């Protein structure tokens, strides 16, 4: 699962979590920079560990390729960003983990990613 539709050009913020003390800022935060989750400061560490646990179940080569494409594409033109994304996708598709992901989906079972 890689960023698609020129997502590498949207300059995503590298952090998934943010902490704001007052409610007004909490509401405005997603408009300042993209965030997929907002948690109170006291819950931040637990939420970070929960995300880390989720990420351990994902295909590591795909996560690495997506992260590299996002970093490389941040300041690229739209055409260059799409080329970076296409190259990352092309490197990921022939991997064992990609085949395992499709097989697991078709067999309705959890995937067992090996990082190869």
Q: Which SSEs are present, and which pair or pack?
A:
Layout lengths: L22 H10 L11 H12 L4 H14 L4 H15 L3 H11 L10
Helix pairs in contact: 3-4
Give a structural overview.
With 116 residues, the protein is an all-alpha fold. It has one domain. The chain is built from five helices and no strands. α3 packs antiparallel against α4. The longest helix has 15 residues. The protein starts with 22 loop residues before the first helix and ends in a 10-residue tail after the last helix.
Largest sheet: none
Strand-pairing-aware structural class: mainly alpha
Strand content: under 5%
Q: Sketch the topology as an H/E string, one letter per element.
A: HHHHH
Number of helical segments with 4 or more residues: 5
The total strand number stands at 0
Average of the residue pLDDT scores: 77
Query: Which outline best applies?
Result: flat
Helix content: 40-55%
Span between termini: 15 Å
Radius of gyration: 17 Å
In the predicted model, the low-confidence regions spanning at least 5 consecutive residues are 1-9, 11-28
- How many structural domains? 1
